[in-house]
């Protein structure tokens, strides 16, 4: 399995192209990544099977519709965040909407959306030659999801190097985030590489040792 990262010009979202045996999926198609992703995919001779999102915020889904249409593939994300795709600004604060610098008239919603459920907290997604484990990790949004790959976990805006995602937007919850950090993130293999939704890569082990939010969640289970 190979992972390539395209950094979006809007908010520096890490868009990941994960490939195996000629098939690939695109995770977190943020604003402005479509052309670079198309070049990468076509130059490598890959066949896209789906566009995934770690959650439904606009800076992680803006170019999903264009990529889905180009390749005739579905959009996959947790069912709890699927409603966000209809209007990417509806659940953001006015200040954050302004900071994004995007315009509603330019948004192209995916037309083929296949939400997935996690009845026991996780589910396996089989997409061509790729198999990913989707772990429900709410707190930043209701449907925030970690994608577990071979040796790597894509954490979206749940976990960053040295920090965690904000919980003050619609659908966020500090208490739920603490539970996710304690019960989902801290239970991951410490050897796993972490590719977050923004910023540099890290490892689960390093975050368990040094991330103050994760340390507090583990040390104060109540």
UniProtKB/TrEMBL annotation:
Coiled-coil blocks: none
Gene3D superfamilies xrefs: Ribonuclease Z/Hydroxyacylglutathione hydrolase-like
One of the record's GO molecular function terms: hydrolase activity
InterPro entries: MBL_Glyoxalase_II, Metallo-B-lactamas, RibonucZ/Hydroxyglut_hydro
Keyword Metal-binding tagged: yes
Annotated ranges, domain Metallo-beta-lactamase: 12-198
Cofactor(s) demanded: Zn(2+)
Domain of life of the native organism: Bacteria
Record key words, sorted: Hydrolase, Metal-binding, Zinc
SMART domains for the chain: Lactamase_B (SM00849)
Protein's name in the database: Glyoxylase, beta-lactamase superfamily II
Organism listed in the record: Promicromonospora thailandica
